Amino acid sequence: MLALLVGAGCDASVDPIQVAAGCPGRPLRGPIAYANEPRNQLIDDFETNTDALANVDGRNGLWVLGADGSSGDLHAEPSDQCAARGSYAGHFIGQGFTRWGANWTAVFEQPSGGTAVPYDAGKYSGISFWAAFGGQDGPDFTLSLGVTTMDNAWNGHICQQAQQACMDYYRTRVPLTHDWTRFLVQFANMAQDGSGFPLLPMRKDQMVGFIIWPTQPQFDIWIDDVRFEP
Question: Which among 36, 102, 143, 209 could bridge 107 via Cys, Cβ 3.0 to 4.6 Å?
């Protein structure tokens, strides 16, 4: 499945900044077309320099890191080194995975007693964000990402964790390059891969989080301005 590429690069409305070594190219300082999107749509722009999401529209969640335990190098945090706009962006970097790898999830609601809490995203049709890969070199690659719901989240207590049927999340892929690029991924274009149970149409009123799950054994990913889209 394909994500829709909706914006890239610099033009007269964009104020370019200097690019530090290892940072994505063509950083942006708030394109006019997107700078004034409603605050209630913001999931996170990392400007608080914490793992907390923007506390708006009933969301009070945070970024959560998951890993298979086989990596000796894994980091996921806000960074002021390579922001697309503003002062901070999310940086997700790891290598050496031999099992299912690692993921980074913007959990929309704080769990309650270890159990996921559903968020009603019924009024939205998708999620937009800016993303690129970092490092000095390396070929372009596609990144797997999407959303978890109560039906497939490991702590939703609906999927069958004992049978390794959890985390078959609703996913798509986007083509990352070394330049900051804006993507819009529609919920309608996400689907489970069939490995889990239950297999159901996405329930947007039961969303748990926006998940980034690279399939490469080594990755260096930057992400910024993550938003719901109507």
Answer: 209
Residue pLDDT, tens place only, 130-175: 999 998 657 788 999 999 999 999 999 999 766 668 999 999 999 9
**Does the global pTM surpass 0.85?**
yes
Structure tokens at 53: 């999401």
For the chain, report the end-to-end CA distance as a whole number of angstroms.
Answer: 20
Closest C-alpha to 129, from 17, 12, 8: 8
* Cis amide linkage into residue 198, ω under 30° from 0: yes
Q: What is the pLDDT of residue 210?
A: 98
Q: Residue 87, Cβ neighbours under 10 Å: how many?
A: 12
